[in-house]
Amino acid sequence: MGAKLRVYKRRIRSVTATKKITKAMEMIAASRVVKAQRQVAASTPYASELTRAVTAVATGSNTQHPLTTEAEKPSRAALLLITSDRGLAGGYSSNVIKAAEQLTERLKAEGKEVDAYIVGRKGVSYYSFRERKVVESWTGFTDSPSYADAKAIAAPLIEAVQKDTAEGGVDELHIVYTEFISMMTQTALDDRLLPLSLDKAAAAATSGADAPVAESSKGEILPLFDFEPSAEDVLDALLPRYVESRIYNALLQAAASKHAATRRAMKSATDNAEELIKSLSRLANAARQAEITQEISEIVGGASALADATAGSD
C-alpha cells in the first residue's frame, strides 16, 4: 500500500508541474493574441483601400497588365501556404494544410501545375516528409511577422507571376492561411490574389466610391479615371504593394489565429491537468485510508493474539 501511495504522490507532483507550464503558456498566448488582434485591425483598412485602388485602376482602364490579365489557358499556379513555426496549437496547422491540399487537388484537376511556397516550419516539415518540392520557404517569424517579412515573401511571388510559364513563371497566385474571426473561431481559407478577378474588382471599385462611371461596350458599369503618368505605370507601382499588404495581413491573421488556438489548447490542457490531479488525489486518499485500515487491523490482530497467548499461559 505504501508503494502505491508513493506512486500517486509522484504522479500528482508531475501533473502539477505540467499544469504550471500549460497555465503559463496560456497566459503568454492570451497576451500575444491581444497584440496580434490590434495589428490585424490596424493593417486591414490599408489592405482594403489598397485593394480598392488597384481594382479601380484595373477596371477603370483598358490597360492589359500581366498582373491583372487572365491567361487564356492557365497551366501553372503558385500556392503560398502560411503555417506555424511551433506546435501546441491544437489543429491549427493541420487545418490550414488540409485546406492547401484541397486547393492543390482542385488546381491539378483543372490541369494546372502547382508551385508551393511555404511559410512556417510545420508546413515545411509536412512537405519535406512527403518529399514534395518546395520552391521557396520562410521560417522563424510566424509568431510576430513584420512588413519586411511580407516584402521578402512577396518578391519571388511577384517575379514568378511576371515571368512566362516557359521560363518557370506562373499564371495565378493563391494564398492559403487562417482567418481570425474571434477568440473561439479561426477558419482556414484560400484566396486568389493574382490575377485580379475583374467582376469582383468592379464591385469593389464602385462600392462606396464617388468616382464617375460609364457604361462599357458590354454593358458593364466602370469608373472613369485619369491616370498620371499612365495606367500601366500606376499598376506597376501599386500591384507589388497590393501583394505585400495582402500577404502581411494574412500573416497577421495567421499569427492571431495561432495564438488563439494555443491559448485554447493550453486552457484545455490546464483543465485536464486539474481533473487528473483531483482523480489522483482521490486515489491517493483511498490508498492512504486502506493503508491506515490495514495498520489498525494488524494492531488489533496482534493485540488479540497476545491476549489469547496470555490467557493460554494462565
Structural overview:
The chain has 314 residues and is of the alpha/beta class. 61% of the residues lie in helices and 13% in strands. The chain is built from 6 helices and 7 strands, in the order αβαβαβαββαββα. The strands form 2 sheets. It has a 5-stranded mixed β-sheet, sandwiched between helices. A two-stranded antiparallel ribbon has the order 6-7. Strand 1, helix 2 and strand 2 form a beta-alpha-beta unit. Helix 1 packs antiparallel against helix 6 and helix 4 crosses helix 6. The longest helix is centred in the C-terminal third of the chain and has 83 residues. It is elongated and about 120 Å long. The two termini are 38 Å apart. About 7% of the residues have low confidence.
What can be said about this structure in brief?
This protein is α/β, with parallel strands linked by helices.
